[in-house]
Amino acid sequence: MRAALTIAVKDATEIWRDGRFRFAAGLLVILLIAAIAGGVHNQSEIARQHADAQRAERDVWLDKGDMNPHAAAHYGAFVFKPVQPLSAIDPGLDPFVGVFVFLEAHKQQLARHRPIEDATPTRRLGQLTPASAALVLLPLLVVALTFSSFAGERDQGTLRPLLAMGISRGSLLAGKAVGAMLPLAAVIVPATIVGAAILFWNAPADPNAPIGARAAGLGLLYLVHTLIWIGLGLAISARSRTQGAALVVLLAIWFANAFILPSLAMAAAKWIDPSPSAIEFAASIQDEKDSWPSWDARVEGVMQRFLDGEFESTMAPANVEVVALLESEADETALYDRRFAELFERYQRQARSFEKVGAIAPTLAARTLSMALAGTDESHDREFAAAATRYRTAMLTTLNGELASSGRFNTFDYTRGRDLWEKVPPFDYDVPSARWAVSQVAWSAGALAAWLAAIALAAAWSVSSMRLE
Amino acid sequence: MKPFIFAVLALSLLIPAVPMAHPGHDHKLMGTISSIDKNKVVMKTTEGKDMTFEVTPTTTFKSGAKRGAQADLKAGMRVVVNVGDGVEPLKAKEVQYSAATTTAKQ
Questions:
Q1: Residue A108: what pLDDT?
Q2: Model confidence pLDDT, tens digit, residues A289-327
Q3: Count of structural domains, chain A
Q4: Positive or negative CA dihedral for A39, A44, A49, A51?
């Protein structure tokens, strides 16, 4: 134990004395802090705009004046996706999915306005986020710190004398691991403190949002991911003939994890489960609706069913067209529910495929988990869409129900005002718990845990069987 | 992001205040005949309310695809009555009926 500590202190001191490390570490600290500050500022601005727009939209809804309840359903309402506080750390899919849904009678829509459409051209090239700094840049620093751990000692001929001093291979591995972690702490600790302070002073988008478990989960995730890379670096350094070979192999693995495998996994997921474009999706729904009876035929059908004695409900409105309208609305809601469920199921299968392909690369699994904990992944987008659908159904039930129970002829001339609009409550979306978020990406959590165990074993085996010269 | 917010709000305000997607035109009401007194017909609507309409010389009658007659109307008969613009007193433009005699429940 003492030997491991001595090795760790010696390695850490040597690394710290290296001006190149201090430069790289300083640069990474600045990048991490800049990424957190930029993410928090961007998130706060978007959250404020969404809140302003949602308030303005509510005022427009309440102040629209007197009108027929079903006309009010056509008037529709916008609901905005709440900005997740931890999206400042990992914006995930948020820039690429719509941020508001227009809810109206007879039609259910996909979320509109993807923030990336509003971004400057340079923003489209990619954005430095705290998550990408932690999951892409930090491993690069780990590679720089670990590639020569054993291979360098071997190249310099100091490995055999080190072991000849009676230091066990286990102590050597532990010392090298801690020796790499200490300089990393010089990067992670100040960046985390400053980042947390920036987050605190800017106040999260929703100050009451329960983000403690999610934030702790993110911290643990980034720590585990860094440990995996340290283990990987040490294992490869122990097995490589030279430190040059170790560096090349580690850089290749890092490049594949950071840039190649994400694209490949996404392409594979889309190839396994192709999804329709927004235009194709809308066209397929329209095709199905076009095959339905016309409005006149639907009205005629209601009359005929009533006259044939099939239509027994005494709670039905007396007006044939109102009954036809309610039935048409119910058919359309069922159609949209089915089609949207199919679409989101397809997206979910793509996410699952991405996760499974991603199991071959720890950074992919970590990225999936990071988005889930930040509340910016596919499953959270699906939950928001489901909440918007439920809100739409409740809104239509209130408005159409008022028309149906209005009495006398239940006519379309019947008008109501603000008192009815107030019966449609403001849209309120509660973000699922951290446990739910992790349960949606259980495969990635399992894959990352398996990676940590496998890397620990691989590092131990590599060091126990490494050549000394 | 600001252009997006302005676009959303502008879109909200541009939506017509009263988009009447479903034309109101003639009101067709469903019910079961309760009683007939010459040209005055009382029916219980599917909502359980009593409603009286008047049969005029221009009222047409239909039983399925065939032309019907006022004399066919009987208590307990299901009818769909076109009461035009619905202004009181209600005057039937067209009465469709069937032989089914199921009485609407209260």
A1: 85
A2: 999 999 999 999 999 888 888 766 555 678 888 888 888
A3: 1
A4: positive
B104 Cα to chain A: minimum distance (Å): 6
Give the nearest partner residue to A53 out of B9, B49, B96, using CB atoms.
Answer: B9
Plot region of A375 (φ>0 → left; ψ -120 to 50 → alpha; else → beta): left
Residue A357 in any domain: the answer is: yes
Q: Chain B: give the shortest CA distance to residue A118, in Å.
A: 6
* Residue A27 within a domain: yes
CB A333 within 8 A of CB A398: no
Q: Which domain holds residue A242?
A: 2-464
Contact A118 B4 (CB under 8 A): yes
pTM for the whole thing? 0.82
B49 contacts in chain A (CB < 8 Å):
318, 407-408
Confidence of residue A372 (pLDDT cuts 50, 70, 90): very high
Q: Is A70 on the interface with B (CB under 8 A)?
A: yes
> Is A123 part of the contact surface with chain B (CB cutoff 8 Å)?
no
Q: What percent of chain B has pLDDT over 90?
A: 40
Q: How far apart are CA A162 and CA A319, in angstroms?
A: 94
Amino acid (one-letter) located at A317: P
Greatest Cα pair distance, chain B, in angstroms, is 70
Q: Chain B partners of A59 at a C-beta cutoff of 8 Å?
A: none
Q: Say if residue A351's pLDDT is above 60.
A: yes
